[in-house]
Design brief:
globular; mainly alpha; about 5% strand
């Protein structure tokens, strides 16, 4: 995966999950992305999803895991996220 692909996939995740996040959370994530801090944006996204106990569809969870793995984030960032049964 290339950086531009990561950016696109991360932005797509944020777009899909935007209804589940607060405006403040979205602004913080966008601020990180606007300066290329993909890891910070990703970990903030995961932390807010975890804090809110958002139930994720399996496909979104697997995309989060794929993006996080590529960025080099430890899987603890997403392992505790709730996945819909």
């Amino acid at each position: 995966m290339k950086i531009d692909e990561i950016e696109g996939r991360l932005r797509q995740l944020v777009s899909q999950l935007a209804p589940k996040l607060t405006e403040t959370d979205l602004a913080t994530i966008e601020d990180f992305m606007s300066v290329g801090q993909w890891g910070s944006a990703f970990t903030t996204l995961c932390a807010q999803l975890d804090d809110s106990q958002v139930a994720l569809p399996p496909a979104i969870y697997y995309e989060i895991a794929a993006v996080g793995s590529f960025i080099g984030i430890e899987d603890t960032a997403w392992k505790s996220l709730v996945v819909k049964a």
